[in-house]
Amino acid sequence: METRALFSERRSVTFINKTEVLSKQTLKDIINLAVLAPSAFNLQPWRIIAVTSEESKKKLFDLSNQQEKVLEAPVTLIIIGDKEGYSDNNPVWIEMLSSVGGNQEMVDGSKQAASYLYGSSEERKLKFAESNAGLLAMAIMFAAKDYGVDSHPMSGIDFDGIHKEFKLNKDETVVMTISMGYYDKSKELYPRRPRRLYNEITSIV
Q: What's the topology of domain 3-82+132-201?
């Protein structure tokens, strides 16, 4: 799908056809395309929990203000940011060493910069995790549309409850959830509401 069409045709689909299956391979292909999203130092401080079982859907439904799409969608993704994703134990640093031809000094300098930029306060850690995982989330929704799959992001959720119920570790944060599937065409979406354009949102300094 062309870029312009992706932007104009992607919608936050409220009504998902609960009888239409989203294959595991299609989900895998969507995520493998979406991870081309940018991240700081290519650290990719994120992971995803794909909620597909009826038991897990019910848990997430109750933690999502009982939004029906959680039950209707074949999968809802929990997008998770890692607040410690800049640390030495991130395997990306090993890959970076190989990518820069074994230049340890370059890698060490990048580690020091990342630690300062993203780890010097709790606020910076949270911003680091959420901003990078947010880039992944948008990439997932565009990649899904390219595969003909619809989506709906959610932030009206119990973040702490999801963190506890799905056993995230202490350095992880729930960024959002994304229900994915195929639009139930028997129901009608509201027309797309107007967006605020350049002249309203942009200032030049």
A: NADH Oxidase (3.40.109)
